[in-house]
Amino acid sequence: MNRSKSEEESQRPYYLGVDIGGTKLAVSLFEIDSSTIAKREQMATGKQSDPAECLNRVIDTARTWIERRNAPPRAVGVSVGGMFDRHTGCMKQAPHLPKWDGFPIVETIRTHLNVPVFAENDANACALAEWKYGAGVGTRNLIFLTFGTGLGGGLILDGRLYRGTSGLAGEIGAIRVAENGPAIRNKPGCLEGFASGAGIASYAESVRAETPDTILPLHPTAKDVVEAARKNDPFAVSIMNQCSAQLGKGLAILIDLLNPEVIILGSIFARSESLIRPAMEQAITEEAMPEAVSACRIVPAKLGESIGDFAAATVAEIH
Q: Is the dihedral angle over the CA atoms 73, 314, 26, 30 positive or is it negative?
């Protein structure tokens, strides 16, 4: 007897993933047997987004999918775009999502769906995803840097996710690489003030008034800077080179300290590698030990725009 498509779907094991970011939130269905994202819905977030309202929409979507499958997911994985306390299941210190600070993300989803729910900060989740399905497959020592709105890091050391004593391992964006710079973390000169979307935009704006001969607006975004640099605007090219050099200094610290096999860079690097790599590599060559540099590849994230969905699903998978 031939089975209907819905009957076939109901037999396929799956995870649900929830990817919470500073500008968007996505819920996805990850089919385990094929390692594919079968369904996905997205909504906007931002500084005024209400966590209860957003998660209610996630829960409604999840319930619809569960009903259609006539079977619950094996687990729900959550990738949280900010500092995250695994013990409480809450986001903390969330500058891009201030209303989410302290909100019980894990407990809310678990209570409404009655399935196991696990969560990690987005850098850890993306490190796991690239390790299992992306550019880090087959490695044991991997560093992933988000390089999106902010700059967070996830560490796979000796084949295991390393979280640190209080879950804050990998916060490379907090390292000071210059005496002055955008105070993205209330810390002028920190790496995130140069190597992040917010940092690039802030740095460009801080010196924009000194350079009237540029196509950049007075209040540029990181996208504005990248697009202007692609058009060979001298000011934008200079900003990208300076930010890329500071990124290289930060990576040199990681290379010397952790001796990784691969460093995987997300979002902005994946989209703008040709603008970033030259100055970044020059700084690494000048700063890091040659033996450690020669053992390490630096590559863009392989999962591309799907990395958040894979990250959330991988969190569900590894627990």
A: negative
* Model pLDDT, residue 66: 97
Options 3.30.420.40, 3.90.180.10, 3.40.50.410, 3.40.1120.10; CATH for 5-128+306-318 is 3.30.420.40
Q: What amino acid is encoded at 302 in this protein? A: K
- Res. 1 pLDDT band, cuts 50 70 90: very low
By the 10 Å C-beta count (0-12 exposed, 13-18 middle, 19+ buried), 87 is classed as exposed
* Beta pairing partners, 76: 16, 117
d(CA 134, CA 303): 6
Is the torsion defined by CA of 214, 276, 273, 303 positive or negative?
negative
> Per the confidence metrics, is the pTM higher than 0.70?
yes
CATH superfamily of 138-301: ATPase, nucleotide binding domain (3.30.420.40)
**Strand order, beta sheet including 76-80:** 36-44, 24-31, 14-20, 76-80, 117-121
Helices 222-230/267-287 angle, 10° precision:
70
Q: Kindly state the helix (H) or strand (E) to which residue 265 belongs, with its residue range.
A: strand 262-265
Q: State the Cα–Cα distance between residues 145 and 307, nearest whole angstrom.
A: 12
Which residues does residue 19 pair with via DSSP β-bridges, in sequence order? 26, 79
